[in-house]
Write a structure and sequence with these properties.
Strand order of the largest sheet: 3-2-4-1-5-6-7-8
Structural class: alpha/beta
Shape: flat
CATH superfamily of the largest domain: P-loop containing nucleotide triphosphate hydrolases
CATH topology of the largest domain: Rossmann fold
Helix content: 40-55%
Number of strands: 8
Length: about 450
């Protein structure tokens, strides 16, 4: 996420890190370079100009304490301004405590509205809500079918009467939800160009009919300033409540994310990464600011771990680790849990200091596939007691998994090394206490 922007800002800040003190010249030189970086990332020029002016004003009037360096100080000032630019604090989605909550999803063609609608339904379902997806996009081929497939995959009902007037579909969705005791209606509207007056009028009419608690504008973060201009036009017409940034896992330069809230005046509420229905994050300005500056996002990483790892299984695993009884079956469970947390690149981008390295690091997203295939080709007895894996067994496992004997040998060797390391850690008293406390939370 925004690796290129992170790398460039990090390079610019390194030039001032070695300085003995902050001066007007080194502040000016550094911020001039950062301004060029922001403009190159397609940040709105007014936003970039105001951002640099604010940082300059704070940096010029700040004394460097003996305990920190000029580089640390300027980084902290830039971090604070990034947080302010992105929205200061997270804006939660509005849901009714009682009665029906209506959520309308709008945006340009190809921005990812349909996929986001399903992701949001899954998230709300996980919070104890009873959502209904409403397929009101009658213009894009296969849009209705796509929503049906997504709804089925997350076990959420879909109201899709077919090619009739979108306002009738929305109205019918409200009726369906009430009849089936559902408490949340998510209406997936058709993508439209902001210059198409007829389509823009239609979406305004649907909003007038629904009177939604939330109108969310979904925007492709890879489209830069075009997305910001479109958001402004949509906001003028339908007055949405919040913004959803999609495709942040792609080659996004960052201009959209850094400009849109300031230009439109509406908060970013969600970040959508990838196509899987669980790939949706609540937006926290301070976390994205930290990632942009290459400081990682440990809080989000821990939250992902807590949601993916079952507490009971974690405690059982802890006991096995203490007794050095960790086997390939346990290893396979851990792999599946890690995969639930998201892609390897997205997880590594949250590790402090790793984000800027991802651009030059070859991340094999299929690394676990081969490992799973090898373990699945073992018998239960072999998984539970890897010591029995002699040459003939390894040869059979390689054939069964479609891999080479060298691959099997490498995995067994790495597993044995990991067992040794775990045994040492256990003897030192290092264990997994994160899941012991049910009330452990990050705010």
């Amino acid at each position: 996420m925004l690796e290129d922007l992170t790398a460039k800002i990090d390079k610019a800040l390194k030039k001032i890190t070695g300085q003995g003190k902050l001066t007007e010249k080194n502040i000016s030189d550094t911020l001039r370079e950062i301004r060029v970086i922001l403009l190159d990332a397609d940040v709105n020029f007014r936003v970039a100009k105001e951002f640099i002016e604010n940082v300059t004003k704070k940096a010029m009037g700040t004394e460097v304490l003996a305990s920190i360096t000029p580089g640390q100080l300027i980084t902290k000032i830039i971090y604070d301004e990034l947080v302010e630019l992105l929205g200061s604090s997270n804006a939660e989605i509005t849901v009714s405590g009682s009665g029906l909550t209506k959520i309308m999803v709008v945006g340009l063609q190809g921005s990812g509205k349909t996929t986001f609608s399903a992701k949001l339904a899954r998230k709300l379902k996980g919070m104890g809500r009873k959502p209904l997806l409403v397929a009101a996009d009658i213009y894009r081929p296969a849009a209705i079918e796509q929503l049906k497939v997504l709804g089925k995959s997350i076990d959420v009902p879909v109201h899709a009467p077919g090619q009739i007037d979108p306002k009738e579909i929305a109205s019918g969705g409200l009726k369906y939800a009430k009849e089936h005791s559902l408490d949340t209606v998510i209406v997936d509207t058709a993508g439209r160009l902001h210059v198409d007056e007829e389509m823009m009028t239609e979406v305004a009419d649907i909003k007038q009919l629904l009177q939604p608690e939330e109108t969310l504008f979904v925007v492709d973060s890879m489209t830069g300033q075009d997305a910001v201009n479109s958001a402004k036009a949509f906001n003028d017409k339908v007055d949405f409540n919040g913004i959803v940034l999609t495709k942040m896992d792609g080659d996004s330069r960052g201009g959209c994310a850094l400009s849109i809230r300031s230009v439109v005046g509406k908060p970013i509420k969600f970040i959508s990464n990838g196509e899987k229905t669980d790939a949706l994050e609540v937006f926290f300005p301070e976390r994205l600011a930290s990632r942009i500056l290459g400081k990682g996002d440990v809080v989000s990483l821990v939250e992902k771990a807590q949601s993916a790892f079952d507490e009971k299984e974690a405690l059982e695993l802890q006991e096995k680790l203490k007794k050095s009884k960790f086997d390939f079956e346990d290893f396979l469970k851990q792999i599946k849990m890690i995969k639930k947390m998201g892609s390897l690149s997205s997880l590594l981008s949250m590790v402090p200091g790793f984000g800027s390295q991802l651009k030059s690091t070859d991340i094999d997203e299929k690394a676990f596939v081969k490992v799973e295939a090898i373990i699945n080709s073992m018998t239960i007895a072999e998984r539970r007691n890897p010591k029995v894996l002699n040459g003939s067994r390894r040869s059979r496992i390689a054939r069964g998994s479609g891999t080479s004997i060298q691959d099997v040998n490498r995995l067994v060797k790495q597993f044995n090394e990991m067992q040794t390391m775990i045994s040492r850690m256990s003897k030192m008293g290092i264990n997994n206490s994160l899941f012991k406390n049910k009330n452990f939370k990050f705010n």
